[in-house]
């Protein structure tokens, strides 16, 4: 939808004094808004809900996405804190002065069809019609909201822009204190040529109380007009056409005066008994919407001084090196400094952030200066935990044989300006090894959080000299002399023996040491400390030509597109153009966060490419391994902007391993979809129903919540809800909800869990870690929905499995190798699985570490995801995820091993029991595919802890003629006292 239509509609109807007018979405759904809602006023005339000030942080509608130290207002009392002022009459019309409706509908049929006809002479106009009328409700305690907003404005803007990473414009934040709602509506907005013309709005909607279907209707005009017509159950007037409240903004100078506005009477437009609003004088009061400034402190002229500029911070270290002091056997570069300057320009002029940038060019970029700048970030008080940090390097790279007994045969390094490519050399003349950079990144992540982006436009292979071709393409990497060697003392390989992070241990103690989790000391290590965007794979060369690097140029062209800032790291890499001779890589546990956004929830709706086929259908680049089945429905978008509106809805009619065939949803008109396009799952397909046995006292309340959820869920902000089926205890089910002492108790019916609980303590059942008061049915329902998603992916498997991969779990021993001057991790003993295909452990005081080995018996390259499903908390952690590359990048080749938990693949894992718990069960589940897939959406946080997902001879590879996928499920049972 052209946002000009929504803007015109809002401006023209705003002058009637009813409040802020909302223009409905293309899906014919007006926003459902409540008193106390805080949200963002969108460009297209909508309202993006954030939280409600009357609900607790863990309420289902708030989902713990509230500002730090959030304190809700007391819930209002319907009988004395809120009043219904007046109602809109049936067939009410609210229109701009240029639009003149007939005094009565021109036709009203017995089936409820209502036809309105309008005439207009002006070039622009807008109209709202309410065939069933509407209801108005307002809070009587506006002063309470005013005071509350005044005291929280700064923290709200800071939270939204910094923690949520939203680029909300000043003055777009809105606190609702009153609404006008309806169950049937039609809106239109137009701009047309001069001359008197007519247009007609026709409604076809039953007025019967039992009607729940959406209405259909038409608008007939001989000029361009944007219209929306919709209806819901007539007994529930819940959709908002006007809202009143506080429009919150922050100013650092005297705000512009609001011009005087007069109201024009319109036939049937005003609610019954409502007075015609008087003209407003220049002030902060605009009809019923107050423009409220954060009173930080008045200046001498009466203006308000602004402490916070509303922009989220970003801290960057940028290094670009063209000129090298001790050049021997390799050439200087010509484009690295230009790349660094372009990155700096992007941060400071294009990206809407409050940037603090340190940039080192050529002779400034010595080894000491680079490491010093990295180390300074760790102690910089301006950098708060979770603030985005960017580290960019463009220059030469190289590799060298690792010391004896080192886990890998080769080590990579970045080449500072003063690097001396001979041996021996002084510490200041050495390169910056990958392990050294990794160590500083881990320390930085522990101090400032893991919202760290590392971009490397270099490589460790190549000649380092200019190609003989006329194009003058040059590699940003070179081969070191054979005499060059690593010296553990000189190259700063030594790691302190206290490396395992007291802070991590304290975090485990505070959390209660429950369940499975990354081992102490590993939470910020390796792939968990940062996201890496690299110019090429290990065997390729990063190249430059004509004074710029291929990778940096392409990457920042994509990032300068406005929609790119609403994309994840992995999505951005796949959007890069094909680069000659190099495939950019994305690595890191958090590669599915929005770029520069450490707080992005991993449970958001995922965008999948969708393309039109010659048969008139559509192909979705996602399939069975993603959990999609026949009947699943998808909203289709023309961009990956999460604030955009869908253009259509499609349904899956056939699925295979990694794709699905889509056609139009029954009853929807076939229409062309602009390309490129993306789809987000809106409804689960067949075989996705989750059966729950619930106490009789809870059934009615849960049924009501399920119905409400079907109407209001936003699939771009969260994954689709699984269908819930409430059953009797005699029907097979995964979850049972009982009542005990006024609390809902959740019983897991999984066979392994049931057997473990029975063996540990006679008569006890395996129940979730916490209970919920039955007075809080929203949270009870949230737990059920969390369980539905949890068990869906836990049980997901392929009945036509032809991939051979073996999974073994080992205990991992952590030792400090004094000769190698580093910690090493390796399996000790045999594999732990028994003849039943499960692991039995007794967690003890030593906090044993564990890792996994995957061995491929397949003839093709494979892509692997490894998840940990915690049965007591319903938490799903990612233990291992593959690299994202523009052209693929499988890591498990034929006959090869992958070792999550030790070696160079991630950190080790621990299994612990909290005090008083006798047994626990965790499932390790591996998803394997012959094609690259994105499965980060499977991870979820516990419904009892809503702060977010815890950072949880060579063979020739063949390509399968048909994509294949498989899963491996390994139960791990912890029992106190087991020997």
Automatic annotation (TrEMBL):
Q: Name one GO molecular function term.
A: cysteine-type endopeptidase activity
Chain spans, region Disordered? 259-278
What superkingdom heads the lineage? Eukaryota
GO terms for CC?
Answer: cytoplasm
Q: Which GO terms describe its biological process?
A: proteolysis
Q: Could you say which protein family the record assigns here?
A: Belongs to the peptidase C14B family.
Stated name of the protein:
Peptidase C14 caspase domain-containing protein
């Amino acid at each position: 939808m052209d946002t000009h239509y929504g803007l015109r509609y809002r401006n023209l109807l705003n002058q009637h004094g009813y409040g802020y007018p909302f223009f409905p979405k293309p899906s014919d759904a007006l926003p459902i808004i409540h008193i106390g809602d805080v949200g963002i006023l969108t460009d297209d005339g909508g309202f993006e809900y954030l939280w409600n000030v009357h609900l607790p942080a863990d309420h289902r509608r708030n989902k713990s996405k509230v500002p730090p130290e959030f304190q809700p207002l007391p819930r209002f009392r319907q009988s004395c804190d809120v009043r219904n002022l007046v109602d809109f009459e049936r067939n009410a019309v609210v229109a701009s002065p240029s639009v003149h409706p007939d005094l009565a509908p021109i036709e009203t049929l017995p089936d409820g069809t209502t036809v309105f006809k309008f005439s207009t002479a002006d070039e622009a106009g807008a109209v709202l019609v309410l065939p069933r009328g509407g209801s108005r409700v307002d809070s009587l305690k506006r002063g309470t909201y005013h005071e509350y907003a005044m005291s929280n404005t700064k923290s709200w803007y800071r939270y939204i822009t910094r923690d949520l990473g939203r680029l909300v414009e000043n003055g777009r934040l809105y606190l609702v204190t009153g609404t006008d709602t309806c169950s049937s509506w039609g809106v239109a907005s137009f701009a047309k040529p001069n001359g008197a013309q007519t247009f007609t709005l026709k409604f076809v909607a039953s007025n019967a109380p039992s009607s729940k279907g959406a209405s259909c209707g038409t608008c007939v005009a001989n000029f361009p007009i944007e219209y929306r017509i919709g209806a819901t159950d007539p007994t529930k007037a819940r959709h908002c056409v006007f809202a009143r409240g506080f429009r919150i903004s922050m100013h650092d100078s005297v705000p512009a005066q609001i011009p005087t506005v007069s109201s024009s009477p319109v036939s049937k437009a005003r609610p019954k008994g409502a007075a015609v609003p008087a003209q407003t004088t220049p002030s902060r009061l605009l009809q019923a919407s107050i423009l409220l400034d954060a009173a930080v402190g008045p200046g001498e002229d009466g203006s308000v001084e602004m402490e916070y500029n509303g922009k989220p911070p970003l801290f960057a270290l940028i290094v670009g090196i063209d000129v090298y002091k001790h050049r021997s056997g390799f050439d200087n570069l010509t484009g690295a400094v230009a790349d660094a300057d372009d990155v700096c320009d992007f941060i400071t002029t294009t990206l809407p952030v409050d940037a603090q940038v340190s940039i080192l060019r050529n002779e400034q970029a010595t080894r000491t200066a680079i490491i010093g700048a990295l180390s300074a970030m760790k102690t910089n008080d301006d950098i708060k935990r979770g603030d985005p940090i960017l580290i960019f390097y463009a220059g030469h790279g190289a590799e060298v044989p690792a010391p004896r007994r080192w886990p890998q045969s080769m080590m990579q390094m970045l080449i500072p300006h003063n690097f001396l490519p001979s041996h021996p050399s002084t510490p200041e003349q050495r390169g910056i090894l990958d392990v050294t950079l990794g160590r500083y990144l881990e320390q930085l992540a522990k101090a400032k959080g893991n919202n760290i982006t590392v971009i490397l436009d270099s490589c460790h292979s190549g000649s380092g000299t200019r190609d003989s071709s006329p194009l003058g393409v040059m590699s940003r990497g070179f081969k070191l002399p054979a005499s060059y060697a690593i010296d553990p003392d000189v190259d700063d390989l030594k790691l302190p023996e206290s490396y395992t992070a007291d802070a991590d241990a304290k975090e485990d103690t505070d959390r209660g040491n429950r369940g499975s989790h990354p081992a102490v000391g590993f939470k910020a290590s390796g792939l968990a400390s940062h996201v890496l965007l690299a110019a090429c794979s290990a065997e390729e060369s990063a190249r430059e030509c004509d004074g710029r690097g291929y990778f940096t140029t392409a990457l920042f062209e994509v990032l300068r597109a406005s929609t790119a800032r609403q994309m994840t790291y992995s999505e951005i890499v796949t959007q890069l153009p094909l680069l000659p001779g190099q495939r950019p890589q994305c690595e890191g546990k958090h590669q599915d966060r929005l770029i520069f956004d450490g707080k992005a929830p991993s449970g958001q709706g995922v965008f999948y490419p969708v393309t039109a086929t010659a048969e008139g259908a559509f192909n979705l680049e996602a399939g069975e391994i993603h959990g999609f089945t026949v009947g699943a429905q998808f909203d289709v978008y023309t961009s990956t902007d999460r604030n955009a509106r869908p253009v259509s809805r499609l349904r899956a009619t056939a699925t295979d391993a990694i794709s699905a065939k889509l056609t139009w949803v029954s009853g929807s008109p076939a229409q062309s979809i602009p390309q490129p396009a993306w789809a987000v799952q809106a409804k689960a397909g067949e075989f996705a129903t989750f059966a729950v046995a619930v106490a009789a006292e809870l059934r009615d309340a849960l049924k009501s919540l399920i119905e409400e959820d079907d109407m209001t869920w936003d699939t771009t902000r969260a994954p689709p809800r699984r269908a819930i089926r409430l059953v009797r205890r005699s029907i097979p089910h995964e979850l049972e909800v009982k009542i005990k002492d006024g609390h809902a108790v959740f019983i897991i019916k999984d066979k392994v869990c049931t057997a473990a609980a029975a063996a540990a303590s006679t008569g006890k059942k395996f129940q979730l870690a916490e209970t919920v008061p039955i007075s809080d049915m929203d949270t009870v329902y949230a737990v059920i929905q969390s369980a539905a998603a949890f068990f869906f992916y836990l049980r997901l498997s392929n009945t036509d499995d032809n991939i051979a991969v073996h999974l073994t779990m080992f205990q991992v021993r952590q030792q400090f190798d004094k000769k190698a001057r580093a910690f090493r991790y390796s399996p000790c003993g045999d594999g732990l699985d028994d003849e039943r295909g499960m692991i039995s452990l007794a967690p003890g005081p030593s906090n044993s570490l564990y890792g996994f080995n995957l061995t491929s018996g397949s003839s093709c390259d494979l892509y692997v995801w490894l998840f940990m499903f915690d049965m007591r908390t319903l938490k799903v952690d990612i233990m291992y995820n593959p690299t994202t590359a523009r052209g693929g990048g499988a890591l498990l080749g034929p006959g090869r091993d992958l070792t999550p938990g030790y070696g160079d693949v991630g950190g080790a894992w621990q299994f612990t029991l909290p005090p008083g718990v006798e047994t626990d069960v965790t499932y390790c589940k591996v998803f394997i595919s012959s094609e690259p897939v994105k499965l980060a959406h499977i991870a979820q946080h516990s419904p009892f802890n809503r702060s977010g997902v815890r950072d949880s001879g060579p063979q020739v590879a063949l390509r399968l003629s048909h994509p294949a996928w498989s899963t491996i499920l390994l139960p791990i049972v912890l029992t106190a006292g087991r020997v």
